[in-house]
Amino acid sequence: MMPNPPVTLEQWLAYIERLHHRSVDLGLERVRAVAGRLGLGASLGMPSIVVGGTNGKGSTCAMLEAIYRAAGYRVGRYGSPHLVRFSERAAIDGRPVEDEELAERFAAVERARGATTLTYFEFSTLAVFSLFAQRGLDLAVLEVGLGGRLDAVNLIDADCAIVTTVDLDHTELLGSTREQIGLEKAHIFRGGRPAVCVDPEPPAALLEYARTIGAALRRIGPDFAVEAGSPGLRQWTYRSDRPQGTRRSLPWPALRGSHQLRNAAGALAAIEALDQRLPVDQQAVRAGLTGVRLAGRFQVVPGRPALILDVAHNPHAARALAQALHEHGAIAAPGEAAPGAVPALAPAEAPRARGGARTFAVFGMLRDKDAAAVVQALAASIDVWHLAGTVGERSLSAERLRDGALASLAAPCTAHDSVAQALDAAMAEASADDRIVVFGSFVIVAEALRWLERGSQ
Q: Tell me, what's the pLDDT at 339?
């Protein structure tokens, strides 16, 4: 133990940020050794659901938490990264864990680690796990940080594991193909235990791994599905191949975008798999879906012009954002079904357009992301681009972004020194009927949230 250890959570975070020579160091040997000294094993002493995937992890975790809490269970939820405050990563009973509690657990990890170095994510994961293990919870909902096989969250043998989607992201660490990435993510599955895959076209490697270890895999399509409800009503059905598994007349999730229906279906498949241990009635499902909240996932800030915050930072997420923008801008005619990206939900007629209203982008990305593919996915949805640079070791300046990924666009494009400047410029240019969408990175959305906080003071 250091002679003058940190005391506050802010001090601990500053300390663990420089503790390890690499920000990402995939592998379970170090973190498993420290977990053993903390008295943590492959279980936290309660049922657990581990959620991995390229996109949709945070939304699925939020829905699971909301539904189980509505059913009366005490739930701990862990996810990353955070947007503004670290305490966003860990919640118990729907409330962020207090900084003082987290600081105490950080001190416990420091005492246990000895000479073992841990990354920021590993250190904080162990701190939250040790807190959950102390609190006598009914369920832990745990979001994988990166990949699956070598991620610190994979210490836990999940009672049910969900893979939401598999697409190209973090290719320098996880592999350059969907097959390689899918195999990495499949390692959160456990033999003889329920596993859920929400990707409609899962990689063969994921399916083969589940078969090899004997996981009880359920897939969207063959085993459960999303079906549209009555025309003109925002209702849907979770269709299951299991007796009494189907749930009808469900409300659309409060998280916007039709892609959220697949995330909701994955959550319900996991709830169905654990029903003997943690039963959930229809009323709790309804309450959870309508009450779920998660910052930065097509988050619409009240006011005019409309301000939309979305952490989409890879091509797959950008395509979902483009679809959500289309739905947000459409005015459904009487009798039309709600527009959606889920095949069964496609409306019979195209919704009417937004008229002359424009969409402004406040956009920035990290340099190891596929900015060109993200721009391509959203180019038809954006009328005016305001670019902001990112900071840190993965930074990408607004000028490089403009001269690279956006060089071929005909739409107006302006580079700014900060997200705040980009937002100020977009707000000054937009009319009341326009909308501004902020996206491209968690750090870009985080800066937008800070901008909003400053404006409300």
A: 30
Q: Give CA–CA dist 412/387, Å, rounded.
A: 11
Which one, of 377, 429, 430, 444, lies nearest residue 405 by Cα? 377
The single-letter DSSP state of residue 333 is P
Among the residues of 200-298, which ranges form H helices? 204-213, 259-273, 282-291
Question: Does this model's pTM top 0.85?
Answer: yes
> Per-residue pLDDT tens for 325-368?
998 865 332 223 333 334 333 332 333 345 679 999 999 999 88
Beta bridge partners of 384: 360
CA distances 220 to 76, 226, 241, Å, are 26, 8, 11
Element spanning 376, H or E: helix 371-378
Structure-derived torsion over alpha carbons of residues 81, 86, 91, 95, reported in degrees to the nearest 10 = -130
227 has a pLDDT exceeding 50: yes
What is the set of domains in the chain, with CATH numbers?
Answer: 9-291 (3.40.1190.10), 299-456 (3.90.190.20)
Collapsing DSSP states into helix, strand and coil, what is residue 416?
strand
How far apart (Å, rounded) are the C-alpha atoms in residues 294 and 88?
Answer: 10
Cβ-Cβ contacts under 8 Å for 254 (sequence gap 6 or more): 289, 290, 291, 292, 293
Pick from 289, 279, 163, 268: nearest CA to 217: 163
